[in-house]
Amino acid sequence: MARQLAHSFTNNTISMDTFTDIQSTIKATQAKMKKAVEHTLHEFNTLHTGKASPSMVEHLPVEAYGSHMKLNELAAITTPDSRTIMIQPWDKGTVTPIEKAIHAAKIGLNPVVDGNVLRCPIPELSKERRQDLVKTSHTMAEEGRVGVRAARREGMDLLKKANKDKLITEDELKRSEKDVQSATDAATKEISDHLAHKEQELMQL
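User: That's the sequence. What structure does it adopt?
Assistant: C-alpha cells below.
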C-alpha cells in the first residue's frame, strides 16, 4: 500500500520543467518537499496503535459508482469508543464495496456488517506486531526522504542549468543552493521528528 501511494504521490507532484526565476524555482522545490512530507504523515496515519481513529480508513480507495472513491466520500466515519470504528454509508449499495475495500487494504481490520452500518473492532496489538509497524514506519519515512531528495535534485539541476545558460550568476546559484539545502534539511527533520513520535506511539503499551 505504501509503495502504491508513493507512486501516486510521484505522479502528482508539481512540475518544474522550465526555469522562470530563482524565487519561483525555490518555491516550487519547497512545494514538492512539502508534498513529500504530507504524504509521509498520511502514511503514518494508516498505522494503527490499538486506538480507534477515522484516519485509519478514511482515505481507503473504494470501487463505487464506476470509479475509485475515498471511503470518507461515501460514508460518515465515527469512533463510538476507543476500540471501534463505525462506518455509516450514505448509500446502502456501497456497504459491500466498502467492506471489500477494508479487507483488501490489509490493515488488520475485519469489518462486521450490521444492517447498513459497518463496525470495525480494533484488535489489541502484540509486541511483535508493534515492532513490525515500527519497521513499516521507518520504510515510509525513508520513502518520504527519497521524495524530498528528488525535489532537491530537480531544483538544483534547474538552477545549475540556469547558471550554465547565463540566466543567473555564480553568486546567485550559490545562494539559491543554500536556500534549497535549508529547505531539504527542514523537510527531512520534520519527517524524522514525526517518525520518532510515531515510533513512541506504536510501542506505548
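The mean pLDDT is 88.
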